[in-house]
Amino acid sequence: MSASISLEIHLAPGHCGHKRIRKGKKPSHAKTTRLPRITRLMALAIKYEHLIADEIVDGQDALATLAGVDRSQISRILRLRLLAPDIQEAILNLPEVEEGRDIFNWTKIDVLTRIECWRKQTHRFKSLRLPRTSSITGTLNAE
Q1: Is the pLDDT of residue 137 over 60?
Q2: How many CB atoms lie within 10 A of CB 7?
Q3: Alpha-helix residue ranges (DSSP H) falling in the chain
Q4: CB of 91 within 8 A of CB of 39?
Q5: In the predicted model, what is the mean pLDDT of the chain?
Q6: pLDDT in tens, 19-78
Q7: What is the gyration radius of the CA atoms in the chain, in angstroms?
Q8: How far apart are CA 98 and CA 110, in angstroms?
Q9: Per-domain residue ranges for the chain?
């Protein structure tokens, strides 16, 4: 005599991109897309800048302690605020990612933060491989 057990499971996002097995059906409200990492970091840079400017935290050292990261990470994130405003806007408006890699990785954008001239930054940003259907090119070409 053979017995079988039936159990419904689904994969849910876990820590650091890992998948976790969860019991039951996937919730209908579960989001299948995510914001690109660089978009989330840009938003974090804006928030960190306000925390420091409004003197809610004493500086980058205190912020690093609160965030549980090294001060150099805070500095790298805050450097995103040195980008030209149109690039910042384009990063914040990147389309959500369903699966796979992000359009831009940190390395491509971090190089731009070291260029002082906003016009040169924008020119270099436009030369990056942009998806043809993206609204990013429209935002930057409107100038």
Answers
A1: no
A2: 6
A3: 37-53, 60-67, 71-78, 85-92, 106-113, 118-127, 136-141
A4: yes
A5: 84
A6: 888 888 877 766 678 899 999 999 999 999 999 999 999 999 999 999 999 999 999 999
A7: 20
A8: 24
A9: 37-141
Q: What's the whole-model pTM score?
A: 0.70
Structural tokens at position 65: 């302690």
Can you read off the two tokens belonging to residue 54?
């409004």
Burial 128-143 (b: 16+ CB within 10 A, else e): eeeeeeeebeeebeee
How far does CA 93 lie from the centroid of its chain?
11
- C-alpha distances in Å from residue 2, one per residue of 5, 6, 56: 10, 13, 65
Average pLDDT on 74-100 reads: 92
Give the tokens for residue 100: 């796979």
The 3-state DSSP class for residue 44 equals: helix
Residue 33 to residue 23: CA distance in whole angstroms: 21
Q: Which CATH class is domain 37-141?
A: mainly alpha
